[in-house]
Amino acid sequence: MRKMSKKSLARALGIGVASAGLAIGVTSSAQAETGFTNGAYISSTYVSFVGCSGQVQAGYSTSTGDTYARGWFTLNTSTRGLACQGWLERSTNGGGSWSDLSYTHVGAGGQTVGTDYYYDGPGYLARVCVGDFLYSNSYSCGGSF
Questions:
Q1: Domains in the chain, number
Q2: At residue 62, what are phi and psi to the nearest 5 degrees?
Q3: Least enclosed by CB within 10 Å: which of 3, 42, 45, 109?
Q4: Residue 6 vs residues 11, 19, 105, 131: alpha-carbon distances, Å
Q5: Signal peptide span per the entry (predicted)?
């Protein structure tokens, strides 16, 4: 029997509460820019997997000029009948490795949810991941900024 990581276990457990549209916590040292209200939209990139979809939306602060990114998800029931999940990841080494940046959002029925905005300036990349976790690798990541 294969041992599940804490991340995979938390996501698997989230399937049982998906209809409530709950977010599953992850630990991260990154701080969300919760007061990002003085910004302007730049663009977005898109990723999709088994009917689950997400995008990285980028914007900049009109007061500081700093770039921020967030994940935006449409959480349907996957084409395999499971709840969709989505989260935002960050790389600080040009995409060599990635770490979770946001909570994992779980839902179904076309629910749209977004993460907080996170700093995404020079030396940072952000991407979204979506999937249904039928298997531990049943997700896809992309759309990096």
A1: 1
A2: -75, -15
A3: 3
A4: 9, 22, 16, 17
A5: 1-32
The secondary structure of the chain, three-state, reads: CCCCCHHHHHHHHHHHHHHHCCEECCCCCCCCECCCCCEEEEEEEEEEECCEEEEEEEEEECCCCCEEEEEEEEECECCCCCEEEEEEEEECCCCCCCEECCCEEEECCCEEEECCEEECCCCCEEEEEEECCCCCCCEEEECCC
**CATH code of the domain in which 91 resides:** 2.60.40
Range of the domain at 75: 6-142
Determine, yes or no, domain membership for 1.
no
The reported pTM is: 0.74
Q: How far apart are CA 73 and CA 33, in angstroms?
A: 18
Q: Do the Cβ atoms of 106 and 14 come closer than 8 Å?
A: yes
In a domain, 77, yes or no: yes
Residue listed under structure tokens 């992309």: 142
Residue 28: inside a domain: yes
- For residue 129, which of 118, 117, 144 has the smallest C-alpha distance? 144
Partners of 117 in the beta sheet?
A: 33
